[in-house]
Amino acid sequence: MILNHLLTPALIGKGQSMPTIFSSTQHAPTPSDSAKTITQAMDRSPVVIDINPEKHAFISRDSLESPYFPTWCPGCGNFGVWTALKNALLELQMPEEEVVIVYGVGCSGNMADFNRVYGFHALHGRAISNAVAIKAANHKLKVIVVAGDGDTYGEGLNHFISAMRGNHDITLLVHDNQVYGLTTGQTAPTTTKGTPTKSTPFGAPEAPINPIGIALTADATFIARGFSGNIRHLTELIKQAIQHQGFSLVDMFQPCFTFNKINTYHYFKERIYYLDEQSFGANHKVAAWEKTFEYDKLPIGVFYNDPHSVPFHKTLSQLDVGPLAKQSISTINMDAALAHYS
Ligand code: SF4
User: Distance from CA of residue 103 to its chain's centroid?
Assistant: First the structure.
């Protein structure tokens, strides 16, 4: 498979030079030949991450943005999420070399074209599984997933639950607009029962998914909900989620301005209140569970945060010597295992 087919367009020959992931003995690719160089390097020898790299923190908004301006509808809540995510990466001063964003399919996933960050645009419903694999291959990376409610709670629901049960150290940001926006307005897993949509003109017949409740029962160790209309608050939630050791979910109310005329900015502003203004202790599962059933008023903030969380990769002694991506496979001898089946 050609590697440059897998890279997000924003990374292939666009913008200024990206930080290198090659060893210091290899030349750094220029923007014009970066994809070709990466492909050749894959054919020629293993890609080795520098043992002692010079870190390149995201230092400006320019360093995060691709040459493409978003194609989202004017007024879309995705703009608020996008801004909050960029704020978080800048304020955390994260090394560019250590951040990977995996995108799902949907309007939210189109952010793959607008961020100048190492990224991977996954198949529908498969963003989480790709993120888990990237983290397993190199647990030194900070892996963030940007996906929609349909992608995550519909097509990808099993991956969502599995990643939480394993406490895989990834940050999942879900654009929850309660409709399938990219395909022009069908019922999504989070659509309120009875809501008329393009696919259910007489009202959605099923009860909606309760994302926070599912996360609590699947033992997610950091669970939060934000609102794209409060960018400062959402930025702080995303920063906490990224810094958490283990699986972190930020479900985000993100109005779809075009296809959801019910869950609008006005709808959320009338109902939202802030958990942190209530002296809410985010380490009590039962209290958090009760909050997930509030629908007349909508709490946002951190529902649950396990300070004793141990991420999946820290339970594997095989990784004590370093990331799998850096380990040599030349000393592995499969003969004994294969002989057992011969
Ligand atoms: Fe945003 Fe909805 Fe337009 Fe998609 S269809 S870009 S979610 S407003």
Answer: 7
